[in-house]
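Predict the 3D structure for this chain.
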Amino acid sequence: MPIKVLMPALSPTMTEGNLAKWHKQEGDAVQPGDVIAEIETDKATMEVEAVDEGKLGKILVPEGSEGVKVNAVIALLLEEGEEESALKDGGGVAAPVETPKAAPPEEPKPSPEPAKAEAPAPAPAPAKAGAPESAPAPRHDGEDRVFASPLARRMAAQAGLDLTGVTGSGPNGRIVKTDIDAALSRPETRAEARPEPAPAEAPAAAREAGLPAFTEQPNSNMRKVIARRLSEAKREAPHFYLTIDCEIDALLKIRQDLNGRADGKYKLSVNDFVIRASALALRQVPAANASWTEAAIRLYQSADISVAVAIPNGLITPVVRNADAKGLAEIANEMKDLAGRAREGKLKPEEYQGGTFSVSNLGMYGIREFSAVINPPQGAILAVGAGEQRPIVRDGSLAVATVMSCTLSVDHRVVDGATGAEFLAAFKRLIEDPLTMLL
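Done. Predicted structure below.
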């Protein structure tokens, strides 16, 4: 009996995904470990490897399909010596239901009385020549068997580059990012690359009254998940907000000194200090390192800090595990690696799931202060603004200091106001006395 190839669950919370690409076609031999398909989750595009040996007998879910449920049968694999006749029953899988063709019209029966004349039905509008409405989008079969990474395919698609003319330098001739960069740097390639087509303008019939012309960009799986999770967070978690101002002149001075001695081994950012201070403050106020469940409040024993990173068309939160036990240099290097791979869509699920507390920093965009939405099921998120020079009163005299405003969004089911204030007070002490973070 054919072996069923199922839609894998690539993360604990995944319920469906998009089948972005088939690397094997019907009739191809498959060995354990072969990459057979690419699956797009809400966070990344990941390659799926075969676990069984055989021949790909039948593809049940074509590439480009969206919203494929986890554990749905996507293909059938024939074992050695098994005939293709075994595929006739679909390997125990129900075949897709075809839309029944309309029955031929019955010939009118003679009526004893003349029928009343009826107005003729309007004839259907003729379809445009060469572009029937139900025709599928054309496929570029010349690229179906090209061995390239998901990032390389996206870069090539955006640049209008034909992958069949690119030589891969990766393992087994795989086309990788550097190959695309090299190809696009050649003058003849830049001249041939076609510009990415602009989104189609919505037809006049689809425009809402009073609105100007617009274009529509279909929601990606990632954007749908972000919308669902954050709507759930604002609906279910009773948010409250606490803001504190931190003077960071001493922090900036130590950062400059440490980077000057790094000799290229690391490069500290203000955000690295924020991650370290958040983790140490959670160690000092463990009641803030918590999340809500209907049965109990979970108090976490390690500070795993989720850090918001903007990526094309979305947001992802790679996690710095045990950040309270890591030094600033280790945090800086880990965040550089995580953020880089996040933007390339190469993070593993365990690298962006399971954090206990989140940090979102928009200071690099000049945002002075903002309130972030809690990242469920966590109990709090710290929103960090820009450090800017402000007038302050020190020892009864007016002075100028570099001040950074930080706002803590808290789930009141988990953390009360006094606990949130205690956390921010501990965070402020660490930020304003950064030497304590070096111990």
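Helices lie at 150-159, 177-185, 187-192, 221-236, 249-260, 270-284, 328-343, 417-432.
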